[in-house]
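User: Predict structure, ligand 2-acetamido-2-deoxy-beta-D-glucopyranose.
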Amino acid sequence: MLSIKMFCYKLFQSTILFLHLTDVNCQFTFSAISLQPPISSVGSTATATCNVTYTGSTATTLTWQIDSVAVQQYRIQNAQVPQLGAQPASGFDTSPSTTTSNVNTGDTFPMILGIRNVSLTINQSTVSLGCSAPGCNTQAPLQIGVCQPNTASGVIATVSSSSCGLGCTVQYSCESGYTGSDVTATCQANATFDASTTCTLSSSLSPGAIAGIVIGCIIAVAIIIFFLIPHCCAEICCCAFTHTLLDLGKKKPEPDITMPDLKKNTQPGGPNGEGDVP
Ligand SMILES: *[C@@H]1O[C@H](CO)[C@@H](O)[C@H](O)[C@H]1NC(C)=O
Ligand SMILES: *[C@@H]1O[C@H](CO)[C@@H](O)[C@H](O)[C@H]1NC(C)=O
Ligand SMILES: *[C@@H]1O[C@H](CO)[C@@H](O)[C@H](O)[C@H]1NC(C)=O
Ligand SMILES: *[C@@H]1O[C@H](CO)[C@@H](O)[C@H](O)[C@H]1NC(C)=O
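Assistant: Predicted complex:
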């Protein structure tokens, strides 16, 4: 009698343990969470998608979380359509969706969570999907960003708000001396602007610059005509004249010096003979 009592107790214990184990086991396999767009602009909706395969057979709760805050819950049960639970008071504006068909053991179905009006405070926060069993979880970091205006040289960007999120606009124009079209660009959900501009250093000059150059040229020409040419000509002529004189002066005295020497050498004989003859 005692052994039967013991056997029943052991059976009861084993049943409890078995039920407990199946409850604790993760009844799902998850794909990696995909975020669309990969970087979401402030104020836009970030969408997380996960493909879930139901490997269990008992009812389990799948929970979407942002960091450790539960935002949406589904009850998954064999041969039933996933049932959305009451939304936990999370403070997040989320929209969940999943298959509207029955889920049987072995089926794969998508689980989608839209996180509306995202802010920079949840940049790098973790979005996760899982159940209470250990290891029953998949997660990804949220990436929230702002649109960065073009800051290339010559570009003037006037942004409609300091932190440029979804729908924020930037007015582009070009600095003086640069040419390019004036463009209005809008920040999109993926934290990029829908348009940009290029300002190129202009080759054509403004009327003021042209007038300045013309006046400068006239002044330069006037200086050349009335000052530099007369002054330089005098210098050039002077130099030429001096050189001619020097050249003549160097060549002429040489024969002058030798000639008198010859005359001096011949003079004693010459004049004497000539003077002696008459
Ligand atoms: C989910 O599965 C579909 C169809 O196989 C695939 O196109 C999609 O990329 C998958 N998504 C993720 C997040 O793995
Ligand atoms: C989005 O969130 C900001 C604060 O982060 C709030 O001021 C704004 O009203 C929200 N917009 C919508 C449409 O909920
Ligand atoms: C979001 O976080 C990433 C990684 O820390 C950082 O590089 C990025 O600048 C952050 N975005 C904004 C807009 O602060
Ligand atoms: C951002 O979104 C726009 C519009 O959907 C698309 O044309 C553009 O290629 C996207 N840019 C990036 C870097 O993903």
